[in-house]
Amino acid sequence: MKLRSIWLLVTLALSLLLPPLTADAQQPAGKMPKIGLLLPTSGPTDPESTFMQGLRDLGWVEGRNIAIEPRYAAGKVERFPEFAAELVRFGVDVITAWSPPAVVAAKGATDTIPIVGIAMGSPLEMGWIASLARPGGNLTGLMLFPLDVEQLNSKRLELLKEAVPRATRVAVLANPTIAGTPDTVRSINAAAGSLRIRVEVFYVSNPTDFENVFGEMNKRRAGALLVLADPMFWVYRAEIVKMAAKAHLPAMHWSREYVEVGGLMSYATSLSDLGRRAATYVDKILKGTKPADLPVEQPTKFELVINLKTAKALGLTIPPSVLIRADQVIQ
Predict the structure, then answer these.
(1) Average pLDDT over residues 109-136
(2) Domain regions of the chain by residue span
(3) Which CATH class is domain 149-269+303-330?
(4) Nearest 10 degrees: CA dihedral of 77, 260, 144, 303?
(5) Quick check: 156 and 172 in contact, CB under 8 A?
(6) Among 3.40.50.2300, 3.90.550.10, 3.40.640.10, 3.40.50.2000, what is the CATH number of 24-145+272-301?
(7) What percent of the chain has pLDDT over 70?
(8) In which element (H, E) is residue 265 found?
(9) CA-based nearest residue to 47, from 149, 152, 144
(10) What is the pTM of this model?
């Protein structure tokens, strides 16, 4: 019998004896896949919990067939490069980078380890990917805003104006260090013109500046506040909400978590939905799909959340036309 025929018979015999491969057995024996998490927060949040639940629904259980390595920046985005390099040295199989600064750090740390960006800005405009349909490198994931961000900002201002009809001067809280801020500000100014609202932008890149900036908003007689998306703002959301309340400023926020700690309202991409969807990316990558072949997706779920307790404290009556559109009303 020829040697090739002998090896075919041996291979066939072994295939009948060995159990079929499952999701738990797709990695080499003794090697548990490691998922690195780069987060702007100081600890676990609801988006992270929906991500973990999404993994469990797909058969990945921490400590059993995957290991999780989280790194929390606690609002100090300058630490992302340090944490990203640490995850690379640790040998993670995939990095989930939550927020644009985390993606920048992850891209700077590796061009080979797959990166799933969660709540990214516009990776196409940043030059990180070749196209949304076929990213072409080691980065894929989910965008924080739709491509038509002007429409989203217009919707926020429209809802804020409808909830606070007397507000003709709106303060905008923005971080100048975040990529895309100038374009966002331009789109907001364009939307404000059609709504007959005067917009004034207040820039904050350090949390120690919040108090002075809110004092300046009062001096400029702002009638309402629009808070733009920023990882540092998210970490200090409770402080921002308290300062807005102290200044009697009805505020529209970019994340429901602000409203849950006392903010007036938010109209935004559901971060929890992004976390759940991100789990499917990690699942596919761990099963062998290259990030270059996984399309970058835009957000598909937006939610309007209103805090009536805060409205009452501000002396506001939210019109029924706004309330009826709310996905959640906090009493």
Answers:
(1) 93
(2) 24-145+272-301, 149-269+303-330
(3) alpha beta
(4) 180
(5) no
(6) 3.40.50.2300
(7) 91
(8) strand 265-269
(9) 144
(10) 0.76
